[in-house]
Amino acid sequence: MYVFHRGPHPLIQFSREGRFLRSLLEGLITSAHAVRIDGEQNIWVVDVGGHTVLKVHPSGRILMVLGRKGSPGADEARFNQPTDVAVSPDGDVYVTDGYGNSRVMKFSRDGKLLTQWGSKGSGPGEFDLPHAVVLDLEGRVYVADRENNRIQVFTREGKFVAQWPELGSPWGLVMTPEQDILMADGKNNRIIKVSRDGRLLGTYGKPGKLPGEFSLAHAIALGSGGEIYVAEILNWRVQKLVPGR
After folding, report:
1. Domain map (residue ranges) of the chain
2. What region, left, alpha or beta, does residue 57 occupy, with left being phi > 0 and alpha being psi -120 to 50 degrees?
3. Given 3.30.499.10, 3.40.109.10, 3.40.47.10, 2.120.10.30, which CATH number is that of 1-166?
4. Rounded to whole angstroms, what are the CA distances from 96 to 81, 105, 119?
5. CA-based angle 109:155:145, to the nearest 5?
6. Where do the H-state alpha helices sit in the chain?
7. Count of CB atoms within 10 A of residue 90's CB?
8. What are the phi and psi torsion angles at 192 (to 5°)?
9. Where are the alpha helices (DSSP H) in 112-181?
10. Residue among 119, 153, 118 nearest 135 (CA)
11. Quick count: other Cβ atoms within 10 Å of Cβ 11?
12. Burial call 128-165: b when 16+ CB within 10 Å, e when fewer
């Protein structure tokens, strides 16, 4: 398990039992925001304060940098406080350029911009802080439109497909092997499960500090055994949830 946080050792790897293994990227990150693992076990980190997305080999070697460190912008080469990244099986890279630009950018596996879509607003295809992004096996793109309190669905080319309002406040998303979506509902301090057609399948959690309770659940991930990991802001912790227990 990798935890990406705002401290002197920004990327920390733990065993599945929570034992510290190593730390990476010291001195290279301005302000951590999101971490993902692709199908080749490369580590992708989003530096919201540095306006960059880094592809990192498991050894810790940086393989690619998207954006220009310390130089925010709205052109094809720069981000303005990006929030998340998703990588398709064929290597295409989707970045939610969220706090400053309200758009999604799609790159090839070698970092060439292929397309982008979105602008500030509340209509279909518009965003008010796109905060997380995941993909399904058919190539659809699911974007957590945080301040509009909805998930929006697009084709891989950025064509609007659907929107799912009234699910809560989507801060983090992860796709399950069964192709359902788990959403960290940050403002309502719970985890919800949604089908790919937007049906609410279940909820878990409530506000608080005890195990199974949340305070601003910011990010969510799945382990290889189905474990659910939830990172919280105000409780300063990561919780590991095991289904069926």
Report:
1. 1-166, 169-245
2. beta
3. 2.120.10.30
4. 9, 7, 12
5. 95
6. none
7. 10
8. -125, 155
9. none
10. 153
11. 22
12. bbbbbbbbeeeebbbbbbbebbbbbbbebebeeeebbe
| Confidence (pLDDT) at 71 | 97
Enumerate residues 6+ apart whose C-beta is below 8 A from 230: 172, 184, 191, 214, 217, 219, 220, 238, 239, 241
CATH level 3 topology of 169-245: Thrombin, subunit H (2.40.10)
Task: Determine the pLDDT at residue 125.
Answer: 97
**Count of all residues that appear for the chain in the document:** 245
Q: Which two tokens stand for residue 118?
A: 């979105």
DSSP notation for 58-103? TTS-EEEEEE-TT---SSTT--SS--EEEE-TT--EEEEETTTT-E
**pTM (predicted TM-score):** 0.96
pLDDT band at residue 166 under the 50/70/90 scheme: confident
In sequence order, what are the residues at sequence separation of 6 or more whose Cβ sits closer than 8 angstroms to the Cβ of residue 62?
Answer: 28, 54, 55, 56
For Cα atoms 76, 77, 80, give the angle at the middle one, nearest 5 degrees: 90
